[in-house]
Design a protein that fits this description.
Blueprint (H helix, E strand, L loop, with lengths): L1 E3 L6 H11 L3 E3 L5 H21 L7 H21 L5 E5 L2 H11 L7 H17 L2 E6 L2 H10 L11 H24 L3 E6 L5 H12 L9
Parallel strand pairs: 1-3, 1-4, 2-3, 4-5
Length: 218
């Protein structure tokens, strides 16, 4: 399962609540340097083609790491890291990274070559993910949460107009990505995080997905 949504939607908070309520939950997929290198190398031909078709800046270090993780995670999950009776939760997973690259990547992210790479990755992940949980809330709620947290973000204290433009751009990239993974078989569940507590959200999500709680009584 991937938790996806714009900044401030509560992805990390909900992931922690799921771990507290369902101890068989695993968050994230571990890959080593060799796995990341192999993942990036496998995307190199399409990145080169994208570069030729769209001049401009090159990918940043973080963007290249996202591309590497998309391939490396897929290989790890496909090889069985997500098997068993537990729940594997991805926070800032493939849907997040594909949407971020599309929304804020270099000009070549809008090229046909990158569109083919993105579609192929979304197709692969749509076949691996059982469900993508889309978390969202109104812009004013998200911006208030972003402004109030210690973790820095590019739209902290930017004002409502600029913040709304950023969030709209993000949501559009997410919508396209969610459609791609849904077409490949992933179930998409929408959750409004405006008022409910993390524990209530986790309980509601468990009920929707028919996942029993395994919290120990005290």
């Amino acid at each position: 399962m991937e938790l996806a949504g714009p900044a401030g939607a509560g992805k990390t908070t909900l992931a922690r609540a799921l771990v507290a309520d369902f101890p068989a939950t695993t968050t994230g997929v571990q890959v080593g340097p060799l796995g990341l290198a192999a993942g990036l190398a496998s995307a190199a031909p399409q990145l080169a083609a994208a570069r030729l078709s769209a001049p401009g800046r090159w990918w940043t270090r973080d963007e290249l790491r996202s591309l590497a993780y998309l391939r490396a995670w897929r290989r790890a999950v496909g090889d069985g890291d997500g098997d068993g009776d537990g729940l594997l939760v991805l926070d800032h997973g493939p849907v997040f990274r594909l949407a971020s690259l599309a929304a804020f990547g270099p000009p070549m992210a809008a090229s046909r070559a990158f569109a083919r790479l993105r579609a192929g990755l979304a197709q692969d992940w749509g076949g691996l993910l059982d469900v993508v949980v889309w978390l969202d809330a109104p812009d004013d709620v998200l911006l208030r949460r972003i402004d109030g947290r210690a973790q820095q973000h590019r739209i902290q204290h930017v004002g409502p107009a600029e913040g709304a433009r950023f969030l709209a751009r993000y949501r559009e990239a997410y919508r396209t990505t969610l459609a791609l993974v849904a077409d490949a078989g992933a179930r998409v569940v929408e959750v409004d995080t405006t008022a409910a507590s993390p524990a209530e959200l986790a309980a509601g999500l468990r009920a929707t997905l028919h996942v029993p709680s395994t919290r120990l009584s005290t």
